[in-house]
Amino acid sequence: MKIVGQKTRRVDGLALAKGKPVFADDIPKKDFLYLKILHSPIAHGRIKSIDKSKAMAVNGIAAILTHEDFPIHYFTSAGQGYPEPSPRDTRIFDDTVRFVGDRVAVVAGESLEAVEKSVELIRVDYEELPAIFDVRESIDNKTIIHPGKDGFSFLHDAKRNISANIDEELGNVEAGLKESSHVFEGTYFTPYAQQASIEPHITLTWLDENDRLVIRTATQVPYHVRRIVGEVLNLPVGKIRVIKPRIGGGFGGKQEILNEEVCAAVTMATGKPCRLEYTREEEFYAARSRHPQYVTYKIGLMDDLSINAIDMEILQNSGGYGPHSLTVMSVTASKTLALYRSPNIRIRANSVYTNLPPAGAYRGYGAPQGFFALESLMDEISEELQVDPILLRKKNYYVEGEEVPIAKVLGEGRDGFPVILNTNGIEACIDRGRELIDWDILRKSEKTGIFRRGVGLATVAQASGIAGVDMGSVFMKMNEDGSFNLNVGATDLGTGSDTALAQIAAEVLDVSVDKIIVLSSDTDTTPFDTGAYASSTTYISGAAVKKVAEDILRQILEQGKLILGVNEAKIADNSVIADNGKSITYQDICTKSFYTDHQKQIQATASKISYDSPPPYNATFADVTVDTETGFVKVNKIVSITDSGQIINPQMSEGQAEGAIPQSLGMALSEFMIFDEKGRAINKNFEDYHIYTSIDMPEIVAEFVYTNEPTGPFGAKAVAEIPINGPAPAVANAIYNACGVRIRKLPITPEAVLTEFQKITDEG
Amino acid sequence: MTTFTINGKTVAVDLRAGTTLLDYLREHGFFSVKYGSDKGETGSDSVLVDGKSMNASLMLIHTLNGKNVETVESFAHGREVHPLQDTFIEEGAIQCGYCTPGMILAIESLARENELPSEEDVKDVLAGVYCRCTGYVKPVKAAMHYLIAKNGDTR
Question: Do the beta carbons of residue A91 and residue A67 sit within 8 Å?
C-alpha cells in the first residue's frame, strides 16, 4: 500500500492553519436575529404563567417563544438511529422544568445586548415541585419527574422514574457464582464529565432564496438534525438543508439536537436569519455531559483463575431527560463484557431521572465508566489472590476465532449481531506497553518516603460502529484532469476523517491524496450517513468509500478499453494499458468520455452497512507519583498501545490517542461537576472545572500494534474512542501500586487520597 | 475616536463603550479570532497586541489607541504560507483547528521575544490556549521544529 498506512497533510489543514472562515459562525451576519435561551432557575417546577410584556418592549426585540407557542409534541434530543432507542420525553419548550438550565423561552432580537436585557425581563411564575438530586433515591420516589402525557413514549417505567432498563442473562449467574472458588465484588462511581469542545454549540438558520430552511450548525449528526427539526417543526425534510462546516470539536456533545430546532423555529416564525450560540457557562449547565454511573461487578473465579461468572449492575443518572440513557448503559455492559470470557453473565441496569442536567453522548459512551469499574476490580482481585495482574488478565481474554456472546443480546436498544473475533491484538499491546513503561522495574520499586511512585495497567475494548445500524454512503465522480470529487455523508468533527477517507479513495485509484476533493456533511449535496459517533467513520464510511472507488476504477478500465478498442487491458501508472502496448491516461479517458468517445460521466455511488463491529483493543499503562503528605497525584507518563487493525494514517491516529488521554486523566483526577443544595451547578467555567492544559500533561507515548481485520477497509478497525477508556483505571491502579490507596470514586482528589492514606497509616 | 492598526492597516473607530476587541474583529470579518469562554481561559480569542499574545475578549476597544494588532489572517502572504503554519500541518498538530490560530500566535509571540526558547517555554505559552483534541503533544513538537529551524538550536 502506498497511501494507506502513511501520514499525509490533512485535506483541511491549510484552511485551518490560515484561520480561514470555515466554522459555523464565520459568516457575515447582516440582518441576523441574535437568540438567547431563558433557562430555568429552579430544578423542578410547573410554569403557572409567563409574562413577556416588559421583555417584548425592549427596543429591537423581534420574538419571544415559549411552550404556549407550540403544540405538545415529544421527541428525543439524542441524534441516533431511527426509531430512536432513547425515550421521547422532551418538548421544544415544556410547561414543566426539570433541571436548573432547562429551556423556558427563547428571545430573538437585533443585537445580543438587547436580547440579554430582554431575557432578564421575562417574568415566570413557577409552582415549585420537590426535586430529586440523589440518583439512589429516584426509583419509586413520591416525586415523579415525567408523569407522562399523550405522545410521551418509549419509556421503560416513567412512574418509577426509570428512563431505561436492561435485564439480560447468559448462562446462569447465581449457579456460576456458587461454583466459583473465589468471588469478588466492588461498586465504582464515575461523575458528570464535560466534553468541553472549545467551540461551543452554535447554530445559524435562514430561509434561502426558495424559502427552504438552511441550518448551518456545529453537529456530528447532520441527517439526524434534518429529521428531528423536520419532525418538531412539522416541515418536510425536503424543505430543510443542513450544512456542517468545520466544527471545533464534538466528542459526543454535538451528537445532540441541542438547540437547532429552537433556532429554526424562530426563523420559521419571523422569516429572519437567526443565530444561537451557547456561552461557555451554558455549555456547563445547559448542554450534555457524561452519564454518572454506579457500576457494580461481582466476579467469580475458578481455582485456575478463569472467570466463571460476571454479575453486573448499573445505576445511571439520566438527569432531567433521557437522551442516550439506554444505549450508554448498553455500551457500558457490552464493551466491558466483550473483553473477558465468562460462561455466565448477567446485566441488570437502570437509568433513572433526577433533577440534574441531562447527560448525553461523550467519547467512549458508557465504556469509560464500565472499564474504570472492571479494570479496578481486576486489579483488586490480583492483589487479593497475589497473582500477577497481567497473568490474570491474559488468562481470561477472548481469543481470535472465539464468539463474543454479549454482542448478540445488546445492540442499539434492540438485539445485536454476533461477533466472532477475527483479530485481537491485546496481548501484543500489553507486551509492548509493559516494556515502554518499565513495568517490571517500577511495579516492584521501593514504595516508601513522602513521594511514592507506582505503575498501573488497564486493558480495554470498544467497537467499530454499531452493527446493523450504522450506514455510510458516498458519491464519486471523475474530472478530466484525473481528480475525483468524493461527496460523503460522513461528518469530520475535527478528527481528520475527511483526510482518512481521501486516503482510502486515493489508495484504490492509485492517485495522490490531493487528487481527491472531499465534500462532506451537507444534506443537499452529500448522501446519507448516520453520523460521526460510535467510532464508525473509518470502518463504515471508509468501507463505502473503498467500494465506490473500486467501482470508479472498474469504469475507468472499461472506458479505457472501449476508447482503445481492445478487450484486454490493465491499470498502471494512472493509465489503462492494453496487452498490445497501446495506452491511455486517466485524464484522456475522462476527457474523451466527456466530449468525443463513448460519452458518459464516470461516476458511482455506494452504501455500506456492516453486521460486523470488530472490537479494537488497547492496553494503557500509567506511571504516577503520589505525594503522601498532600495526596496530590502527579502523572509522569502514560503509555497507550492500541490494536486498531491496519492504521490508515498513523500520525492522525496517534493524535486521537494523544487527545483522548488528557480527557480521561481529567475524569480521573480533576473534572467533575459540583451542584449546590438547589441543584445549581457551581463550577461553570474553566477556572473551576479544570481540564488538562499543556503544562499539566505527562509524557505521552501512543503506539499501535497492527492486525489485519478482514471485515474492515484495508484491514482497519476503529480508533476514535478506545484510547479514552484506559487512563482513568490505569491511574487508579498505579496509585494503589504506589501507596496502597484504593479509590473507587472518580475523580481521585488529593483529599480522597490523603484521607485513605491516613487510614492505612493509622491501621499500620 | 480610537485609532489602531490591524494587520498593518490603520483603522479609526468610535464604538459603544464596552465593545471588546473580539466583538469588533468578528464583526469585521477577522474570523480566525474566536469565542471560547468569557474569561479568556481558552485563548481561542488570542491576538497579538504590540507583538504580545492577548485575549481579545478581555480588551476593550478604547484601550487600543496607538496599538498594533495582528491576527493569523496576516501570517500567510497570498498563497505563501507562514513556516509555522506549514509546520503545524506537516506535524499533524491540527485536529479540529479551532484553537490553532491562538496556538500559532502564542508560539510566534514567544519566538519574537525569546531567541532560545525551551520546550518548557513553549508549554508555558500554550497553557493559555486550550485544546481538547491533541493533548498538546504534536503542537509542542511542531513549535519546537519551527523554533529550531528559525533560531538554530534551542536551550
Answer: yes
Q: A200 and B132 in contact by Cβ < 8 A?
A: no
Based on the domain organization, do B56 and B118 belong to the same domain?
A: no
Distance CA A194, CA A689 (A): 9
A690 close to A670: Cβ distance less than 8 angstroms? yes
A219 pLDDT more than 80: yes
Look up residue A626 and give its three cell numbers: 503520589
Cβ contacts below 8 Å, chain A against chain B, sum to 176
Q: Please state, as a whole number, how many other Cβ atoms lie within 10 Å of the Cβ of residue B77.
A: 8
Expressed as residue numbers, the domain containing A527 is: 471-609
Residue with cell 509524557: A699
Q: How many H helices and E strands in chain B?
A: 5, 5
How many angstroms separate the CA atoms of A102 and B6, rounded?
41
**Of residues B36, B101, B127, nearest to A19 (C-beta):** B101
Strand segments, DSSP code E, in A284-357 are: 293-301, 307-319, 344-353
Tell me, yes or no, whether A336 and A458 share the same domain: yes
Query: In the structure grid, which three cell numbers stand for residue A617, read together?
Result: 483493543
**Whether A497 contacts A537, CB under 8 Å:** yes
Q: Which amino acid is at B130?
A: Y
- Grid coordinates given for A22: 470555515
Q: Choose among A521, A477, A518, A485: nearest CA to A501.
A: A518
pLDDT, tens only, A445-482: 999 999 999 999 999 999 999 999 999 999 999 999 99
Q: How would you write A30-59 as a 3-class SS string?
A: CCCEEEEEEECCCCCEEEEEEECHHHHCCC
Task: Residue A494: name the closest of B39, B136, B148, B99 by CA.
Answer: B99
Based on the fold, state whether residues B87 and B109 are members of the same structural domain. Answer: yes
A134 inside domain: no
Report residue B153's pLDDT band, with 50, 70 and 90 as the boundaries: low
Q: Which of A26, A116, A694, A703 to probe the B interface (max B CBs under 10 A)? A: A694
Residue where a domain stops, chosen among B42, B74, B106:
B74
For the cut 60, the answer to whether the pLDDT of residue B120 exceeds it is yes
Residue A541 is assigned to a structural domain of this protein: yes
- Do B134 and A655 make contact, defined as CB atoms within 8 angstroms? yes
Per DSSP (E only), the strands in chain B are 2-6, 9-13, 46-49, 52-55, 68-70
Question: Which residues form the domain of B21?
Answer: 2-74
Q: Is the ipTM of this complex over 0.85?
A: yes
Name chain B contacts of A655, Cβ cutoff 8 Å. 92, 95, 133-134, 137-138
| A114: amino acid identity, one letter | A
Q: Which three cell numbers stand for residue A697?
A: 500533561
CA angle A267, A270, A274 (to 5 degrees): 40
Q: Do you know the residue count of chain A?
A: 764
C-alpha cell at A422: 477475527
Per-residue HEC secondary structure of B16-50 comes to CCCCEHHHHHHHCCCCCCCCCCCCCCCCCCEEEEC
Alpha-carbon span A273 to A279, nearest angstrom: 20
